[in-house]
Amino acid sequence: MENVLERIGSMGIIPVVAIDDIAHCSELGYALIEGGLPCVEVTFRTALAADAIEALSTAHPSLLVGAGTVLTVSQAQTAIDAGASFVMAPGFDHDVVDWCLDKQVPIFPGVMTPTDINGARNKGVKVVKFFPAEASGGVKTLKAVSGPYADMQFVPTGGVNPNNLSDYLTLPFVLACGGTWILKKTKIVNSDFDAITETVREAVQIVMQTRSG
Asked: What band does 2 get if pLDDT is binned at 50, 70 and 90?
């Protein structure tokens, strides 16, 4: 579990994607790896999520593949069986969190309020997903709600983009950010993987410049 957290923290961004066609998985994985960001969160917003997780994990063993938009224990089980290394949830569900902790699966439950954060902390979760980040007030709100929780880390997701990525990453309690802008559906559908690779490289560059500054 700690190794997954360390890898995510070292990369600074988790690209988020919904897969509609398994045929795109192999090239998508190459684009991420070539761009310098060997990590992806496949959301359970399509019926092919589990198949995509399996395809990506099988084709690219070095790729850190996680499951997103996990709402139930059944989805969490399906994701892990398919090869996912971590679970992201949009909200704080006790059953999902308990199951993941029992199986020693890294779980990032979604939080938006101090009550959510407190609930996660009381279960021993140390890293939570701040969602939806920008719609909830962005950096300003995250600074405010994180104040009482010095031992917690956050993964802001939702509305994070190249223009505000540095603002989030400069916060010492932000482990990484969820990046929904990196793997655009139109580029995937059009098989424009060279453009995706370039977007990945640009995101990695922002992380490097922010952390070196």
From this structure: confident
Number of other CB atoms surrounding residue 185 within 10 Å: 11
Burial group, residue 26, by CB count within 10 angstroms (0-12, 13-18, 19+): middle
pLDDT of 49 > 90? The answer is yes
Write out the two tokens for 43. Answer: 């959301």
Catalytic site positions: 41, 129
* Cα 40-45-47 angle, rounded to 5 deg: 100
Is the pLDDT score of 213 beyond 80?
no
CA distances from 49 to 110, 111, 154, 196 (A): 19, 23, 24, 20
CA distance 157 to 160: 6
pLDDT of residue 181: 96
Q: What is the pLDDT of residues 5-27, one digit of tens each?
A: 999 999 999 999 999 999 999 99
* Domains of the chain from N-terminus onward: 2-206 (3.20.20.70)
Q: What is the mean pLDDT of the chain?
A: 97
